[in-house]
Amino acid sequence: xxxxxxxxxxxxxxxxxxxxxxxxxxxxxxxxxxxxxxxxxxxxxxxxxxxxxxxxxxxxxxxxxxxxxxxxxxxxxxxxxxxxxxxxxxxxxxxxxxxxxxxxxxxxxxxxxxxxxxxxxxxxxxxxxxxxxxxxxxxxxxxxxxxxxxxxxxxxxxxxxxxxxxxxxxxxxxxxxxxxxxxxxxxxxxxxxxxxxxxxxxxxxxxxxxxxxxxxxxxxxxxxxxxxxxxxxxxxxxxxxxxxxxxxxxxxxxxxxxxxxxxxxxxxxxxxxxxxxxxxxxxxxxxxxxxxxxxxxxxxxxxxxxxxxxxxxxxxxxxxxxxxxxxxxxxxxxxxxxxxxxxxxxxxxxxxxxxxxxxxxxxxxxxxxxxxxxxxxxxxxxxxxxxxxxxxxxxxxxxxxxxxxxxxxxxxxxxxxxxxxxxxxxxxxxxxxxxxxxxxxxxxxxxxxxxxxxxxxxxxxxxxxxxxxxxxxxxxxxxxxxxxxxxxxxxxxxxxxxxxxxxxxxxxxxxxxxxxxxxxxxxxxxxxxxxxxxxxxxxxxxxxxxxxxxxxxxxxxxxxxxxxxxxxxxxxxxxxxxxxxxxxxxxxxxxxxxxxxxxxxxxxxxxxxxxxxxxxxxxxxxxxxxxxxxxxxxxxxxxxxxxxxxxxxxxxxxxxxxxxxxxxx
Length: 665
Description:
3-stranded mixed sheet, alpha+beta, single chain
């Protein structure tokens, strides 16, 4: 970095000191408890490098980083893309701000990052990797980089061999057991116990001869030997392919044409990249939740709390619109909408529970007797909380649980710019009332849309020990923080799959115009097929289950008693791309060193049935068949297998096809 660059970076950093500090303060006022964040000022090229490196400054040498850098640079140059932020999961977290971005963009990034850092710190899926300890990811990745660079520099190891080995491992880096905490592959390795050793130990125990003859006789030992020899490896299907290959795999030696033991460097690199796969797994598993969480709190801080100044708001609105309007399956948009919907539904339930305790209101007459306009007015936050007048600070009561007494005293003495930072005067409870979702303009009418089914469900679990004489009395007891409290609970325990499965409803789909579409063979194009929430959920879960990749497990390390490997694709109604499957099996061969088999299920269509279906304007029904792909190091073969051989990996209740029945032939 030149002196001019350093001066520029220092000037920008100094201008951002206050926004960084105040964004962290505001985040904590809203109930967030993020990791501390270190912010770095970087230029355009450095930002592209960081994006290519997955948010870290140091990664192991490999050609793919250059490919990702070139793609990112061209995307910015030719497609109008713009890098706003990148932050990594670490304690402290590290976030990078591009020096060419406007102040409004920088503030948006800073508020977005604070929410990410909160999610990193409290979501249990991130805690799986570190076991609840500090991730220390930057140091870990730097150590991995040094280790792999050392192997590449070793004159006895070919650099190309190391890169090819990394290529092979990267093909399988999503094939880990993402629901388990990370543990070293060697830690999971079962100890080998020889049957002859057991016989010797029995002799040393000096047991009575009658006990040995009746319980541990030669017949029992022979049975144990037979069981050991016939035992399947692994005993149960193994989801962590990388750990399995570390324990049982061999490298294929092209010169000798046979399997050989992995070298120390090969086993070491395999375990290092497996560790990195587990570290990045949580980010892949929570993309919608995490980005939605950050977009939700960023919007509240920048817009509702006016962290974006009046001269910056239009720039920020453009920034937010570009992020939320990104094409394709947009995790920012989907996540933000779903978090907002959950907040609204929790708050609505809280209000309904209060109103259903009012004398004369039941779930049957709820919509007839409740004046929703009056309820809406009754839920409006206290004017003293909603808008702070710097000239009326004496009217605020420091004993009020919504008011931060220490901050109020400081403001009265002139130590706080109340006009600029009014939120400093409030506690979490005060902020929850200040931002109560049901009174926001975009959510008016949400309470009135409560279905009779939901009202009946709520009333079924109400106790009659607390009744209200009037609606006003009931509304006075509404807990304004109920929605936020529930959001923080969900943030701790869910991942994208459970998040979508539990909270995506028909009401959400209708409100946000989600639908499914399918490719139709009769017309050769895509058609909208359904707006049913179960269908929408199916399609979304398909995108996020196992990171949207096929689920493949190890079923047998001694297939057909020939030391061949049997992998199984857990078919979910979506068949493999057989060409890509072949390429992957070829890579797996490099980690096994012996023939590799992959069983799967494919859909086949008869040409005659397809023609008949087209004439009838109906979709043909494919036939599902079991297939076994085999690669022996030289040749591929694909053969039919009986249904019984693939029945254990066939889809049961899970079907991602959303074509209406009337379309089918």
